[in-house]
Amino acid sequence: MEEKKVLVQAIVDRMKEVVGVTKDVELAEAIGASRSQPAVWKIRERVPFAECVNLAEKFGVSLDWLVLGRGTPGIEEPELELHEGSLHVDGGDYVEFPAFDMRTFLEAETPSQAVRMPRTWLQREGIAIEETIAMRVAGNNQSPTVGDGDVVLVDRRPHDVDGMYLLRMGDGLRLRRVQRMHGGELHLRNDNPIYATDVIPADQVDSIEFIGYCYALFRHVR
């Protein structure tokens, strides 16, 4: 029982650290609870799990750290790490995705590099490992959002939502924001204002091949 009291006290202390207060009553006010709520948790030895989940989501901290004290407060985010490799590799804590180049993707049978990413982040984001590839972008059509040489994570599963997609148009690849219009027409937009929007009539939509939905962007600091 004493261990449970220590656990709850430690959780309350970490919760106060997250919201930037030092007193239990200040914590209660910060999370919208009654002023006596932290004391109730301690007396009843109840782990405030729901409150911890809310704080983890609001402040972007690790739930493992907040509840169990494991690891560090920050949630591990992926860093761009390109290295030699070509296939999906399941390496325990990390997963490697094949990395292609937009300039050579249509001709290349196998990629020459891979991107290594933490499994915890992939699971948290719901990314389908076997259906995902990395792609080095060519061109500045989507600048400043996505620049030449940046790497995007591409989910190759079918998607029916608007967003940024990697498309095959004719004999080349294009990165475009897809907006589906009433009547079946597609508007293919660019974030870079110097480029015009491509309008694809409904009867020509089949000429566009959707390679995948661009889920995440990774870049080196320039």
UniProtKB/TrEMBL annotation:
<feature type="domain" description="Bacteriophage CI repressor N-terminal">
    <location>
        <begin position="10"/>
        <end position="73"/>
    </location>
</feature>
<feature type="domain" description="Peptidase S24/S26A/S26B/S26C">
    <location>
        <begin position="109"/>
        <end position="212"/>
    </location>
</feature>
<dbReference type="InterPro" id="IPR039418">
    <property type="entry name" value="LexA-like"/>
</dbReference>
<dbReference type="Pfam" id="PF07022">
    <property type="entry name" value="Phage_CI_repr"/>
</dbReference>
<dbReference type="GO" id="GO:0003677">
    <property type="term" value="F:DNA binding"/>
</dbReference>
<keyword id="KW-0238">DNA-binding</keyword>
<keyword id="KW-0805">Transcription regulation</keyword>
<dbReference type="InterPro" id="IPR015927">
    <property type="entry name" value="Peptidase_S24_S26A/B/C"/>
</dbReference>
<dbReference type="Pfam" id="PF00717">
    <property type="entry name" value="Peptidase_S24"/>
</dbReference>
<dbReference type="InterPro" id="IPR010982">
    <property type="entry name" value="Lambda_DNA-bd_dom_sf"/>
</dbReference>
<dbReference type="GO" id="GO:0045892">
    <property type="term" value="P:negative regulation of DNA-templated transcription"/>
</dbReference>
<keyword id="KW-0804">Transcription</keyword>
<dbReference type="InterPro" id="IPR036286">
    <property type="entry name" value="LexA/Signal_pep-like_sf"/>
</dbReference>
<dbReference type="InterPro" id="IPR010744">
    <property type="entry name" value="Phage_CI_N"/>
</dbReference>
<protein>
    <submittedName>
        <fullName>Phage repressor protein C, contains Cro/C1-type HTH and peptisase s24 domains</fullName>
    </submittedName>
</protein>
